[in-house]
Design goal:
One of its GO terms (cellular component) is cytosol. Catalyzes the reduction of dTDP-6-deoxy-L-lyxo-4-hexulose to yield dTDP-L-rhamnose. Its EC number is 1.1.1.133. It is an enzyme of class 1 (oxidoreductase). The protein has about 290 residues and is α/β, with parallel strands linked by helices. The protein has 9 helices and 12 strands. The strands form 4 sheets. It has a 6-stranded parallel sheet with strand order 2-1-3-4-5-10, sandwiched between helices. A two-stranded parallel ribbon has the order 6-9. Helix 2 (about 40-50) packs parallel to helix 3 and helix 3 (about 75-95) packs parallel to helix 4. It binds NADPH dihydro-nicotinamide-adenine-dinucleotide phosphate and dtdp-4-keto-L-rhamnose. Dtdp-4-keto-L-rhamnose (TDO) binds near residues 66, 104, 152, 176 and 178.
Length: about 290
Amino acid sequence: MKTVLITGANGQLGQALKQIAGDYPAFSFLYTDYTELDITNEEAVNTFFSEQEIHACINCAAYTAVDKAESEEELAFKLNFEAVMHLANACQAHNARFIQISTDYVFDGKKNTPYTEEDDTDAQSIYGSSKLRGEATALGINTDTIVIRTAWLYSQYGINFVKRMRELMQEKDSLNVVFDQAGTPTYAVDLAQVLLSVLSKAIDAPGTLGGVYHYSNEGVLSWYDFAIAIRDMSGLSCNIQPVTSDKYPTPAKRPAYSVFNKQKIKETFGIEVPYWKESLAVCLKHL
Ligand SMILES: NC(=O)C1=CN([C@@H]2O[C@H](COP(=O)(O)OP(=O)(O)OC[C@H]3O[C@@H](n4cnc5c(N)ncnc54)[C@H](OP(=O)(O)O)[C@@H]3O)[C@@H](O)[C@H]2O)C=CC1
Ligand SMILES: Cc1cn([C@H]2C[C@H](O)[C@@H](COP(=O)(O)OP(=O)(O)O[C@H]3O[C@@H](C)C(=O)[C@@H](O)[C@H]3O)O2)c(=O)[nH]c1=O
């Protein structure tokens, strides 16, 4: 039995992992969030790893408030870079596989064809920069680190675009949503399945499979298209207007295009990726 530490376990990805953990009997899971293990506390991280026998760590903790990060740079870097360094060092010292989650916001969005893992990064926001520093640091500490970049994460858990839109649509007659930012949503439960199947292969293969991988659901759409689908598939009625980003100003700049090329993760781990609309339907059944 291999013990897997899940940090930030009360967040939406952490809760998605808890939902499917029973399908992976070869693993026993240690779920921690801020109160059990504050990953910004280096000493606490080292003590935790010394007291428990940990074979792998999936870091689901992060500073994810994209706009707020613009005015809380220090906090964002503390969690998305420094804490990642503490976990990566502890994993290295205890021979544990480290899986770090990152984001499409590491790209500037100037491309118009899907981003591969080899494409140059150029984050446009504090959140994106802090996540980029975290992934580079973890890989620098150990090339066995697996960094999985994902995008537009949503689920029945926590706070996300799907839940926020449904609330807004019930409160308001009309909404403006940007149509000049294109990407692909990711259902957190699909990502959780991918993380555990990746780990199942990687845990017994030290020295291989490390590196960056892209994962989202299949398809390409704008936030506007996503909002329309959320409305129609939820049976709600709200007038949704497509607007350009300058008509919906935000503190943080988002990439205009952040679609992933997912060939690497599909081929390396034999993963089949669900179409975004099918996964949205699954999520909406749980809401
Ligand atoms: N959400 C999204 O749209 C996307 C997310 N990602 C990445 O996916 C990963 C998971 O994201 P998601 O599940 O949405 O994140 P959430 O914000 O839902 O969850 C993060 C969790 O980490 C906890 N946490 C905060 N500070 C600490 C700390 N010092 N020590 C331990 N835990 C802490 C949070 O607790 P509390 O709530 O109390 O602060 C929360 O439970 C992250 O790496 C994120 O960057 C990538 C692309 C898209
Ligand atoms: C609520 C709302 C948002 N928007 C715009 C703002 C923004 O450009 C886009 C997305 O909105 P949000 O701010 O909810 O999403 P945002 O926080 O940018 O989501 C991101 O979170 C981080 C953690 C990631 O890693 C990314 O992959 C991505 O999922 O939609 C509207 O146009 N109208 C609206 O009513």
